[in-house]
Design brief:
Blueprint: H1 3-46, H2 49-149
Helix pairs in contact: 1-2
Keywords: Coiled coil
Coiled coil: 72-141
Length: 150
């Protein structure tokens, strides 16, 4: 498997795992709510109304507090996970930036080499033109010498 397929499989597994956790968490919340309702009903039956309302309010506050602690814990875990993933992505970004900079450097070196080669080609063409012109002149002189001897 290549890196992308591994990453895809890992993300898929994380998704399934998170879905299961959400289902379990939902069942826990439902059970906690049912328990809260049972406690409320018990308190209403056994205690005078004002006292029962106070106790129920305390139970509700305690329940909300516990749920907020659980939510905060889950948020903290998620934040830590995301921080790690961000760190991994930043490392990958640095690696890619380094590779891009190296590629740019190699490209610049190649460009300089091409300029040098083009300069040499131009010099050779100029020399070739001079040699060609010189040979033409020599040929014309030789032809004029041959024609004049006839």
């Amino acid at each position: 498997m290549n890196f992308n397929e591994d990453l895809y499989q890992d993300l898929k597994a994380k998704y399934v795992n998170a879905s299961l956790k959400l289902s379990l968490s939902r069942n826990e919340r439902i059970n906690a709510y049912d328990k809260l309702l049972e406690e409320q009903n018990y308190v209403y039956k056994e205690l005078p109304e004002k006292l029962a309302d106070g106790i129920i309010e305390n139970i509700e506050k305690e329940h909300a507090y516990k749920m907020s602690i659980k939510a905060n814990k889950k948020m903290k875990e998620e934040q830590e996970r995301l921080s790690k993933e961000i760190e991994i992505l930043e490392d990958e970004k640095k690696t890619l930036e380094k590779a891009v900079n190296e590629t740019i450097g190699r490209t610049n070196k190649l460009e300089e080499t091409l300029r040098e080669v083009n300069g040499e080609i131009q010099k050779l063409q100029e020399e070739n033109a001079l040699i060609t012109e010189s040979l033409r002149n020599e040929i014309q002189r030789a032809q004029s010498v041959i024609i004049s001897k006839k």
